[in-house]
């Protein structure tokens, strides 16, 4: 049941995720999805598809956060638009297709995948691992394939693709600042395609659930999006005054703990 308490909780969650996104330049899926699974479970929303609802709602929230992120990076000239254009078709294809496949996958398997993926992200943050640059030239076909894989994984884990995209673009000898900016731009089509896919694939499965639009829970989407949009600039303004490396480790630990909690709540 939807009440003012849940609305306030969504407001706090959105503000926290938006602040962290602005502060660290990372997506909030690692925190947002596990918490939404818990909140939806307590609310009694979509008990049979609570993980799918959390994934779809998180991706919908990303549309707002990624659009503001694109503007910030584009204004600094750190988006390599040629790479975005050559990857976007694969990204949209991968993200859209995987949402239809995920609709019929056991939520436990998705939770396991999410937990393992977040463990990988946490490990990369801790070790600050970066691939050795490739000596091979970047080709359109390789960008399309990479975009498809990034779109698929990102939609299944409800993340913007930042971890995968930055790693891949760094491997392709793109400057780290431009890799981060380009990754932010890549997150937008992932969010759009993933959201549309989860809306369509969940349409018949949530007809009896109030306030849902496919696998999107509208109250959570609206409140979290507004709060994160307002809080993101505050996080960005604080980024120069706080120890980013330490905060990323804390963010990784929290995301991993919440992911494991989600896994055990679904099993």
The average pLDDT is 81
- Number of domains in the coordinates? 1
Q: Structural class, from secondary structure content?
A: mainly alpha
Secondary structure tally, helices: 10
Proportion in helices = over 70%
Task: Quote the beta fraction.
Answer: under 5%
Low-confidence runs: none
The biggest beta sheet is recorded as: 2 strands, antiparallel
Count of DSSP strands: 2
Using the alpha-carbon principal axes, give the shape: globular
* Element order: H for helix, E for strand: HHHHHHHHEEHH
Distance between the termini: 24 Å
Q: In what order do the strands lie side by side in the largest sheet?
A: 1-2
Q: What does the radius of gyration come to? A: 17 Å
Pfam family, one: TauE
InterPro entries: TM_pro_TauE-like
Family: Belongs to the 4-toluene sulfonate uptake permease (TSUP) (TC 2.A.102) family.
Keywords: Cell membrane, Membrane, Transmembrane, Transmembrane helix
Write the layout of secondary structure elements.
Elements: H1 4-24, H2 29-43, H3 50-75, H4 81-102, H5 107-127, H6 140-157, H7 162-171, H8 176-201, E1 212-213, E2 216-217, H9 218-238, H10 244-266
Antiparallel strand pairs: 1-2
What brief labels describe this structure?
two-stranded antiparallel sheet; 2 strands; TM_pro_TauE-like; transmembrane helix; 267 residues
């Amino acid at each position: 049941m939807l009440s003012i308490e849940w609305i306030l909780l969504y407001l706090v969650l959105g503000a926290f995720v938006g602040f962290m996104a602005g502060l660290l330049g990372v997506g909030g899926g690692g925190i947002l999805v596990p918490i939404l699974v818990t909140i939806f479970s307590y609310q009694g929303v979509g008990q049979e598809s609570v993980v799918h609802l959390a994934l779809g709602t998180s991706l919908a929230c990303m549309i707002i956060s990624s659009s503001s992120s694109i503007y910030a990076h584009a204004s600094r000239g750190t988006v390599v638009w040629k790479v975005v254009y050559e990857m976007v078709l694969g990204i949209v294809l991968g993200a859209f297709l995987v949402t239809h496949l995920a609709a019929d996958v056991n939520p436990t398997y998705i939770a396991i995948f999410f937990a393992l993926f977040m463990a990988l992200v946490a490990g990369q943050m801790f070790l600050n691992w970066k691939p050795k640059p490739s000596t091979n030239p970047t080709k359109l076909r390789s960008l399309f394939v990479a975009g498809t894989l990034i779109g698929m994984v990102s939609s299944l884990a409800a993340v913007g693709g930042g971890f995968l995209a930055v790693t891949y673009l760094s491997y392709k000898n793109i400057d780290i600042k431009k890799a981060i900016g380009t990754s932010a731009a890549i997150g937008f089509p992932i969010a759009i395609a993933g959201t549309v896919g989860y809306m369509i694939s969940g349409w018949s499965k949530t007809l009896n659930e109030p306030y849902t639009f496919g696998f999107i829970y509208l109250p959570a989407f609206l409140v979290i999006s507004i709060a994160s949009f307002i809080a993101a600039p505050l996080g960005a303004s604080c980024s120069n005054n706080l120890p980013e490396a330490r905060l990323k480790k804390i963010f990784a630990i929290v995301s991993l703990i919440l992911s494991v909690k989600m896994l055990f709540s679904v099993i």
